[in-house]
Amino acid sequence: MQKSRRRLLVASLPVVMAAGLSTVLVAPAHADTGSSLTIAESHQQAFVAGGTGTYTITVGNAGPGATDGAATKVTGTLPTGVTALAVGGSGWSCKTSPSLNCTRSDTLGARQAYLPITLTVGISPSLAGKTVTSSFRVARGGPTTFQDEGSIAVKDTISQTQTQTQTQTQTQTVNVKCPSDHNKRSAV
Predict the structure, then answer these.
(1) Half-sphere exposure of residue 144, counting CA atoms within 13 Å on the CB side?
(2) Which of 136, 152, 149 lies closest to 30 in space, CA to CA?
(3) Which DSSP category does 96 fall into?
(4) Alpha carbon 65 to chain centroid distance?
(5) pLDDT band at 162 (very low <50, low <70, confident <90, very high)
(6) What span, in angstroms and rounded, lies between the C-alpha atoms of 75 and 86?
(7) Band of the pLDDT at 160, cuts 50, 70, 90?
(8) pLDDT in the model for residue 123
(9) Would the pLDDT of 58 be above 90?
(10) Closest by alpha carbon to 46, among 37, 55, 36?
(11) H or E stretch including 141?
(12) Within the chain, how many helices (H) and strands (E) appear?
């Protein structure tokens, strides 16, 4: 009975998914004791060759307990032609060089998530029409030794041009002629 409850906790962690884009949540194998960190990624628009894109990375705790205050570290590996331009998030200490990573050491309650990390990337024009894979990992520990808790691989097909949605508003002017005795009529 306890085992099925734990699965329910992992399945009930909220994940935001963008339409048409896939997001995978991977729960670690040791989800049966203490805290259990998870990682998810989403982005709202297609990545376009020669443009920029934004990943939103969320770290959550599937529980059943809170984290113990040990450092939480998120690392990312980007494919050739995709370059980290900026990374950050409330409560996170982030850098893009020499490697992409963000850390924090505050506790996280069961079935809760930290505020997300936003990663802005530049996309090489040479990637038009190609499928690329980025990967992100979450680990706990520190200061030099971290144990992996979860990972995610994100595949994107790079568009050649930006698809735009346009809204058109049409205004039509209609001239209405009033009868010549309009001013003499009384309201009913």
Answers:
(1) 0
(2) 149
(3) -
(4) 24
(5) low
(6) 14
(7) confident
(8) 95
(9) yes
(10) 55
(11) strand 131-141
(12) 1, 10
Matching residue, tokens 């996309």: 123
Cα–Cα dist 101/103, whole Å: 7
Q: What SS3 state is found at 60?
A: strand
Query: Phi/psi of residue 122, each to 5°?
Result: -95, 140
Is the separation of the CB atoms in 120 and 97 below 8 Å?
no
Q: What is the DSSP letter of 126?
A: G
User: Distance between CA 162 and CA 146 in Å, rounded?
Assistant: 40
Tokens of 167: 């809204």
pLDDT in tens, 89-126: 999 999 998 889 999 999 999 999 999 999 999 999 99
What is the Cα–Cα distance from 15 to 105, expressed in whole angstroms?
22
Structure tokens at 141: 């520990």
